[in-house]
Structure prediction request, 85 residues.
Amino acid sequence: MSSEKQKLLRRLQATRFAVIEINLYLDSHPTCSEGLKYFRSKSEELKKLTEEYQEKYGPLCAADSKAENYWDWVSTAFPWERGES
Prediction:
């Protein structure tokens, strides 16, 4: 896996983790305005990172596949296995 691709995937994973954790925090602290602000910020960052990754390296999960003529999800390596594109 390329260094750039690996860095982007790690950043995406860390941001997804932050979104999940702040979601859990907000479940028990629903009036925390700083928590909500952080959630919105990290959610937007996650969206952008996901779009960037998929544009450069392909879908992160089967539901994101854009295949029209054949099911390509299983015919290629998984995101963590894919080499240079």
